[in-house]
Amino acid sequence: MKIIKHPFWVILILINAFFAITLKAQSNNSLYVKITKMHRNLNFKNASYHTWIGFEKDYLNTVIKKNEFILQRHVLTHYMTEDNTEVLFIQMYKNWEDMQKAERRSKELEKKGWVDGKKREHYFDYLEQYFDKNQSDQIFMTIPGIKEDSSGADKSLFYQMRVNHLAFPKDGTENEFLKLNEEFLKKSVYNNRYIKGYYPFVQVLGSNKRQYIEFTAVKSLDDLENAFKEIDVFLYEPKKEDEARHNIFIANFFKYFTGFHSDYIYKSVPELKK
Fold it and tell me: For residue 206, what pLDDT is reported?
């Protein structure tokens, strides 16, 4: 398989030659994101959540935290999704090369952390029992608009993942999308008192390169509902004097999306966060 090293805006151009979101000015600020979806092994009868956390914390401290190429790492577990066995491992990297270097560095740290080969084999054999063989990896890139989690690393949060699908209007332009997206985020996300973290990604490698994914972190499901209410106020309740301009904004902004989306809710595991 040929490795794709193109930034996400080049890939979008290939999908539809009539429309390009190039985001050239943002290229140096974008991060690569690898989302690995694992599935709990329901046939492992001796499984213990606390034991699993302990083993994963050992790996976090021995490998992940010492791996200089891994900038961030989040672990999310199923809460309201179609598959109750899902566990997401999300890691961020500075660029494509660092993502490749991180894998080699992890192998080195594993050997340093578990010098005895038999003990190392026993450790990973036991840990692997918690998951079945069904695993998928998808590669994304961040786009402008991240709101960093400010709730503290020791608290579990609810993460709503919304999977949008991009449209490619013939009259779309880079500058228009950037300005519209910035306006939307300023008025509906950045100042939203219920949203503790917000992470927008666009897919680079995976099943559907039209995917535009938003992770929204909140403290509770009530806060998630209230966050939506504040967004709806901005989207659908403009002041009378701004109504005409706002209607133009809505029409222009949403032409960049097909209108179809799906939603999933996960819970973070703060003990396993870098």
Answer: 62
Amino acid (1-letter code) at residue 73? R
The answer to whether the CB of 63 falls within 8 A of the CB of 107 is: no
Structural domain of 202: 1-274
How is residue 224 written in tokens? 């998630």
Backbone angles phi, psi at 265, to 5 degrees: -125, 130
38 contacts: CB under 8 Å, gap ≥ 6: 86, 87, 88, 89, 131, 135
What is the C-alpha separation between 122 and 136, in angstroms, rounded?
Answer: 24
Look at the chain and report how many structural domains it folds into.
1
DSSP three-state, residue 215:
strand
pTM of the model: 0.85
- Summarize pLDDT for 146-159 with one digit per residue, the tens: 998 876 668 899 99
Q: Which two tokens stand for residue 60?
A: 């976090």
Q: Determine how β-strand 158-166 pairs with β-strand 211-218.
A: antiparallel
One-letter amino acid at 65 equals: K
Kindly give the parts of the chain with pLDDT less than 70.
Answer: 1-28, 151-153, 206-209
- The whole-number pLDDT of residue 78 equals 96
Q: Which helix (H) or strand (E) holds 246?
A: helix 243-254
Distances (CA, A) of 224 to 74, 81, 152, 256: 19, 16, 18, 25
The pLDDT value given to residue 176: 87
Report the amino acid identity of residue 255. Answer: K
The answer to whether the CB of 256 falls within 8 A of the CB of 166 is yes
CB atoms inside a 10 Å sphere around CB 136: 11
For residue 119, the domain's CATH number is 3.30.70.100
Distance of CA 274 to the CA centre of its chain: 14
Distance separating alpha carbons of residues 47 and 130, to the nearest angstrom:
7
Q: DSSP code of 29?
A: G
CA atoms 241, 257, 184, 22: torsion sign: negative
